[in-house]
Design goal:
Number of strands: 0
Strand content: under 5%
Distance between the termini: 88 Å
Shape: elongated
Oligomer: single chain
CATH architecture of the largest domain: Orthogonal Bundle
Radius of gyration: 27 Å
Number of domains: 2
Length: about 180
């Protein structure tokens, strides 16, 4: 401090602080450039449904591969893990379980589609209601609910991987009093 009571190095301290902040920002930018890829992913991590362009193409509800052929290699444990990760937030899976945001899924394969007692479905699924869930219809629903039943209240984007869908269907089939015989 000088004899006047003022810090004679205050300007130097401010300049050193700004210079240090600039160096830290530059170094963080360089490190981030190395750690984070500049390439955009092939598919978005989060699909936003409900946005349509004027000339949106109509996607097919049929799976690209027959789901029946994939049951030979279906892994029930992987299906259970995927259901726990992506479905259990809205659906219950226990026998006699109450519906959550979505209907209970216990014994769903072979049951009437959109017919769970005590659950109110959107009007968009009325044309699909009453028919039994088959492996093919369940696969088409799980692939893209909005394409299977346009206007559905289910906001799930779908399971695009055929083998993952087969795993989920195999698990849902096993989660029943009388599992159906899968092809």
């Amino acid at each position: 401090m000088s004899s006047t009571g003022k810090d004679s190095l205050l300007g130097n301290k401010i300049l050193a602080g700004l210079l240090t902040a600039g160096i830290i920002l530059w170094a963080a930018n360089r490190i981030a450039g190395v750690v984070v890829s500049d390439e955009s992913p092939k598919t978005p991590a989060i699909a936003i449904t409900g946005l349509q362009t004027a000339a949106a193409p109509v996607a097919s509800t049929a799976p690209a591969v027959s789901i029946d052929t994939l049951f030979a290699t279906a892994d029930v444990a992987k299906g259970q893990a995927l259901v726990a990760q992506q479905c259990s937030a809205c659906h219950t899976l226990a026998k006699g379980g109450a519906s959550g945001v979505g209907p209970n899924l216990y014994g769903i394969l072979g049951a009437k589609a959109f017919g769970a007692a005590g659950f109110t479905y959107s009007s968009a699924v009325a044309s699909k209601a009453g028919k039994p869930w088959t492996p093919d219809s369940l696969s088409a629903w799980l692939q893209n609910p909005a394409t299977f039943a346009p206007g559905t209240g289910m906001s799930f984007a779908g399971i695009k991987n055929d083998q993952s869908r087969a795993n989920v269907i195999a698990y849902l089939n096993s989660n029943s009093d009388t599992p159906a015989k899968l092809p």
